[in-house]
Amino acid sequence: METTRILAIRHGETDWNVASRIQGQIDIELNPQGQWQAQQVARALAEEEIHAVYASDLSRAHATAQQIATLHGLPVQTTPALRERHYGVFESQIWDDIQQAHPQDAARWRDRDPDWTPANGGESLVMLQQRVRQVLHDIASLHRGQQIALVTHGGVLDIWYRLATGQDLQVARTWGLRNTAINRLLWTPQGVQLVGWADERHLDQGTREETSA
Asked: How far apart are CA 32 and CA 41, in angstroms?
């Protein structure tokens, strides 16, 4: 079989999510709500056949993935290629401060300028898209005919949704990226397709959405 079924999951909540503070590639741990969310998504997937679990090497993603992997007797395979977008100098800041101190950068960010690159090692949307498209292909191609879980970050999931639905990088987002929602994709060598998105039935408490988690 040429297809790989993918469970694409955002990590559980962190205190920086709650504060709307830009995490990017800073390693922030799950808060108690995030730990609960990770347990809930693992239970929701306990009866599904999962052949491998991959995660970003940042602890908030790895800890979420570990809950899923443990119930299936699998290791968590980590890779920095599944990390969130690098926001450079803006990591650890909140949006209001960025708008005041860097209005031109804030405008380009808000307008989703695909070539805008945050200073101090940041990634543009184009760079992010290239990275996460490649890692999706690289991992999925190893598991043809299987189902795998990929635990990652909001920015990565946003790009995968766009790839699966043909949405341009500059189109305003109307789809959810909530913590530990279950998203389903189907990969083939020709590309990726959307099967289902933002399944939150395993959660009975609200979580805060943040695109830069």
From this structure: 14
Domain total for the chain? 1
* Model pLDDT for residues 55-103, shown as the tens digit of each residue: 999 999 999 999 999 999 999 999 999 999 999 999 999 999 999 999 9
Q: Considering 11, 62, 86, 153, which one is annotated as catalytic?
A: 11
| Assessment of whether the complete model's pTM goes beyond 0.70 | yes
For residue 138, the domain's CATH number is: 3.40.50.1240
Reduced to 3 states (helix: H, G, I; strand: E, B; else coil), residue 196 is strand
State the pLDDT at residue 211.
41
pLDDT exceeds 60 at position 206: no
For this structure, is 11 an active site residue? yes
Of residues 13, 84, 91, 210, which has the active-site annotation?
84
Residue 24 belongs to a domain: yes
Question: Which structural domain range is residue 51 located in?
Answer: 4-85+125-199
156's tokens: 């990565």
Active site residue 84: yes
Distances (CA, A) of 32 to 18, 23, 35, 69, 209: 12, 18, 5, 19, 16
In a domain, 210, yes or no: no
